[in-house]
Amino acid sequence: MVNAFIIHTLLPGPCRVLYQQVYDVEQRDTTGTKSSDSDLRFLRKQKVQEVASEVHSEYQFRRAVSSRTVEQDMQRLSNEDTLPEMEQGFLRLPEMDNMIAVWQGTGNTCCTLVCYETENRMLAENVLKILIRFLQEHLRLLHQPIEVANKPDKVAIVLNRFLPGGQLLFMNHRMVRQLEKEMDTLMKL
Which InterPro entries does the record match to this protein (predicted)? Predict the structure, then answer.
């Protein structure tokens, strides 16, 4: 089960969350009573921002170690019509019990899945690649990341097809094609 899907920036400077979908709905505070809706929304938003910031920090560290610059990343991104080679990784999230972040990013955009550490990481990585491919196709995610914030309904359509209710699906190429046809129909409406 995926607890959250996040799209955020990777540019040097502060990390900005462009889109978030949280699937873990009910949380309790330390006293065991239910929190108000506004408190839960604030806590979710804060946790999502913390995860995005940790992934951002890891990406910046990897870029510094490999001596790559932002300009090199953006040039590599603009020279390719297909999906470029993406930096990817896994992070344990100590502030969230038994959770990991599976992320893939390039240029100035990153997508992250927050999952239980018992989830199949290879499956999470595969689903994330599929999500990125279709988000790039329909929203130009990697070239124009602000489109994600401007058209959240299209992001939701892609997520509902390939990550229904936060469930990771085993998909062969036939199933991906079928889901793609259904999604294309919904996008035209």
Answer: AP-5_subunit_s1 (IPR029392)
Q: Where are the domains of the chain?
A: 2-187
Write out the two tokens for 159. 């997520």
CATH 3.40.50.2300 fits 2-187, yes or no: no
**CA-closest candidate to residue 7, choices 172, 175, 130, 128:** 128
pLDDT digits (tens, 9 = 90+) for 83-94: 677 889 999 998
Q: Is 18 helix (H, G, I), strand (E, B) or coil?
A: strand
Q: How far apart are CA 137 and CA 135, in angstroms?
A: 5
Low-confidence winner among 8-17, 63-72, 155-164, 169-178 (lowest mean pLDDT): 63-72
Angle, helix 152-162 to helix 173-188, in steps of 10 degrees:
150
Query: Rounded to a whole number, what is the distance in angstroms from the first to the last CA of the chain?
Result: 29
**Residue 141 to residue 14: CA distance in whole angstroms:** 19
Query: Rounded distance, CA 184 to CA 189, Å?
Result: 9
Nearest to 183 by CA among 166, 159, 163, 158: 158
CB 7 within 8 A of CB 109: yes
| pLDDT tens-place string over residues 121-156 | 999 999 999 999 999 888 888 888 888 989 999 999
- The answer to pTM > 0.85 is yes
Q: What is the pLDDT of residue 126?
A: 94
